[in-house]
Amino acid sequence: MARKVFYSFHYKPDHWRVSQVRNMGIVEGQPLLSDHDWEEVEKGGDKAIEKWIDDQMTGKSCIVVLIGKDTASRKWVKHEIKKAWDAKKGVVGIYIHNLKNKDGEQTTQGSNPFDNITVDGKKLSSIVNAHNPPYSVSTNVYDHIKSNIDDWVEKAIEIRSGNKA
Questions:
Q1: Where residue 93 sits, what CATH number does that domain have?
Q2: Mean pLDDT value of segment 119-128
Q3: Over the range 142-164, which residues count as b (16 or more CB within 10 Å of their CB) and which as e?
Q4: Reported confidence tier of residue 136, pLDDT bands at 50, 70, 90
Q5: pLDDT on residue 165
Q6: For the chain, what is the domain count?
Q7: Crossing angle of helices 45-57 and 35-43, rounded to 10°
């Protein structure tokens, strides 16, 4: 049975790339919202977004941060990482900048979002793995993620369950 995960990502530029990862079917993630549905959630303001995140994280054992060019600077990505960590869920990152978007474009690698969050005086990046597929060809990146995502999720859950932070 596939693990249930919460995907955290920067919506506008990375939705297409995230859909590729989600549709691999290796781990089970929350449904991805359409542009219209996400706009409806956003209209409710911060409280509505927090409720949506809470609802979607319920029953998930790990958060998978899909890291694009600007993911690390996103307010809600930071919120989701902190929330997952505080809830003792596994946390893992996967760089997706070399997956092509709907227009066949790749982008530049973004910063590690775990560098921006501290736990007990140390950067979360010293605890949490951010996997960067060692390929530049989109199909190879896709295959690498598909072959490894379940192991990365399991390792993240193992790291979190053994960490007293």
A1: 3.40.50.450
A2: 94
A3: bebbeeebeebbbbbbeebeeee
A4: very high
A5: 46
A6: 1
A7: 120
